[in-house]
Amino acid sequence: MQTFSLERFFNPEKIALVGASENPSKIGYSVLKNLLGAGFEGEIYPVNPKAEYIQDLKVYNSIGELPENLDLAVLTVPKDAVIPAFKELGEIKTRSAVIITAGFKEVGKDGYYLENELIQLSRDFDIPFLGPNCLGMINTSAKMDVTFTTGTPPRGNIAFFSQSGALCQAILDWALGENMGFSKFVSLGNKAILNEAHMLQDMGSDQETDVILGYIENVTNGREFLEYAQSMSKKKPVIMIKSGTSTAGAQAASSHTGAIAGSDQAYQAAFEKCGIFRVHDISSLFTLAQAFSTQPLPQGPNLAIVTNSGGPGIMTADACEGSSLNITRLSEETIAQLQKFLPSFASLHNPVDIIGDADAKRYKKTLQVVAKDHNVNALMVILTPTGTLIEQMEECARDIIEVSKNVNVPIFTCFLGKKSVVTAQEMLRDANIPCYNFPDPAIFSLDAMYKYTHWKNRPLETPETFTVDTQKANSVIEKAKERQTGNNAVEIVEFQAQEILQAYGLPTPETYLACRSSEAAVLADKIGYPVVLKIASPDISHKSDVNGVKVNLNSAEEVKRAFTEITSRTITLKPKAQIRGCLVQKMVPKDVKEVIVGYKRDEQFGPLLMFGLGGIYVEVLKDIAFRLAPVSRSETKEMIRGIKSYMLLKGVRGEKEVNMEQLEEIILKLSQFSMDYPQISEAEFNPVLINDEQAWVSDVRMLLE
Questions:
Q1: pLDDT of residue 244 exceeding 80
Q2: How far is Cα 353 from Cα 330, in angstroms, rounded to an integer?
Q3: Residue 137: which of 72, 211, 187 has the closest Cα?
């Protein structure tokens, strides 16, 4: 990704509006009106070939009349005029641009070529630009609004970028209704030059921004996006919506991993890898934005709940189930202090129920005590309009605001009801204390904030590397390339991939290739019984298609008979297949668990690793964990723990825990292989058999692009 300094782009002193208009129905009129309405204090140069003045500003009839070294040019001219205008702006050394005009790659082939011409001009003149086909952008600290939407949001500490202009308009309108402030607001449009990674880079270092929000439909360069996102998310929270989660249209794949690992899993894994919070609706986006932008981060998982009604307190505690939060035990000192003024029938243990007849004074005293308990990392205040409180809502809100100024833990509130609590809710929100109608969004926000604390404090790990016999691995790859015709992918099946497993030091059952039945019997005697026989053919990836596996063979005669049966059946069913013989493999012990480890190379983010239990767990239940390579040891542990059936690996009903360290090492080595050989688009170890002592990669398949 080409990097740019966007200082002048977001903080210009001289702006040209190419396509400014006197007609209120034109975009050029709206952009100028918004810029003036925002109170921009720099110089504005409207460009229009026919007008003298527009909105009381002197008009320039051509770009050639403009001064050199403009900081920003905003283009709203017709599509066919964009290229000539951009060339003229380049000749007067314009530093950056916003191209609002539509009609480029979003409309088809002709627009695609036109946009490519624009990209080349940008490179020739070194002019980074936003768009085309965008709504524009806003920087409230610079009093700059070069959008054609209605209304500029108030100044705030939340930055937002979006690929959808229509969504930008809707969110701006909603923000104006909620009086929600923004630092920056950017419509990316077609992302011809400036994209989401540039926005992360700028907003991450922007002192006016504390929270970054984004809506994306795709990512321009996945690996660069990961790099910037991981760096910036350590500084401030990044919250995103990613649309287009459907798996329809996914290409057919040869492995379980390839069939299951879709684009949405890759995006989810990317967000997890770089610490981005992914939400699936606009309501959740701004629920988290409100929380992160107003309250300090909880330094631990311990939550205290204060309520005047037992039911909502229990509901809040229930909402914590499955989250990272913990309904903490209050200290004896806190309980003793509460006993001094709460009624004898109040609940002094968390949740603290101060009973339905509580007034504002009782709430305030309780909050002052509970908020200072050293076991409490966050405080949730629930209020139902009962008894005397109906007349004391505003007083109670003022008391909560006062208490919040003297404590270091985040305070979230839930005022249940509508008519009687609306003024108090507005008071709390105006004081930067989140207030919700129901407990669930508050717990959702607190959970995200604590997870972010954990992410922010987590050191970045360097993935482990293992010694590899690259000569042996390269030899297998080169032999596979010789079988390629044109652009067709080639499978590297088990008998060929065995050398790659050996090159990476992966544990396998003792295995040999036998070309004749007598040779198979000799090798079986050498290995020791029982053994397994498997068909060895570069043209057969799924051995079950030809019933090409025989297990639990206990004598030389059984081995010879099985060899003949397998090869004869394969010749009948697959007459064109090359048959190299059979693999003779040591049969592993019976008391093993079966897992699957694999990856598919995502075109944006690279290798997407998959892990799960074998059989129905992966095929039917889809109990799978995904991570993007390369993975660290910690990520590998999280991946294994991430499946619902993890406890089966830990051991249940007297069973022993599987050899986790060796399982982790298998995943780490596959991760390294996926980065070492980008030409391998898919690889799968299926099954990996494992017990408490050892793991064995029992079968392997790879796909060479």
A1: no
A2: 13
A3: 187
Judge whether residue 388 has pLDDT over 70.
yes
Q: Would you say residue 250 has pLDDT above 60?
A: no
- The reported pTM is 0.90
Q: What residues form DSSP beta bridges with 688?
A: 595, 697
The total of other beta-carbon atoms located within 10 Å of residue 257's CB is: 27
Name 7's Cβ contacts closer than 8 Å, sequence gap at least 6: none
Alpha helices, DSSP H only, in 126-278?
A: 165-178, 196-205, 222-233, 256-260, 263-273
Q: Check if the beta carbon of residue 553 is closer than 8 Å to that of residue 545.
A: no
- What's the pLDDT score for residue 534? 93
Strands 137-139 and 144-145: antiparallel
- Res. 201 pLDDT band, cuts 50 70 90: very high
What single-letter DSSP state applies at residue 41? Answer: -
- Going by C-alpha positions, the residue among 366, 242, 393 that lies closest to residue 305 is 366
- Does residue 441 have a cis bond before it (omega within 30 degrees)? no
- Distance in angstroms (rounded) separating the CA atoms of residues 23 and 705: 56
What values do phi and psi take at 644, rounded to 5? Answer: -65, -30
Answer yes or no: are the C-beta atoms of 168 and 149 closer than 8 Å.
Answer: yes
Tokens of 19: 């396509």
Quick one: DSSP state of residue 60?
B
Closest CA to 649 of 600, 701, 700, 597: 597
- pLDDT tens, position by position, 11-66: 999 999 999 999 999 999 999 999 999 999 999 999 999 999 999 999 999 999 99
Q: How is residue 348 written in tokens?
A: 């002094």
Quick: pLDDT tens for 369-385: 999 999 999 999 999 98
Whole-number Å distance between alpha carbons of 140 and 357: 46
- What are 372's two structure tokens? 């200072």
Cα→Cα distances 663→19, 636, 642, 678, 684, Å: 63, 9, 14, 23, 14
What is the 3-class SS of 541-581, one letter each residue? CCHHHHCCEEEEECCHHHHHHHHHHHHHHHHHHCCCCCCCE
Which residue, 162, 72, 75, 70, is CA-closest to 118? 75
| Proportion of the chain in helix, strand, coil states, percent, rounded to 5 | 40, 20, 40
Query: What tokens appear for 555 in the block?
Result: 């004598």
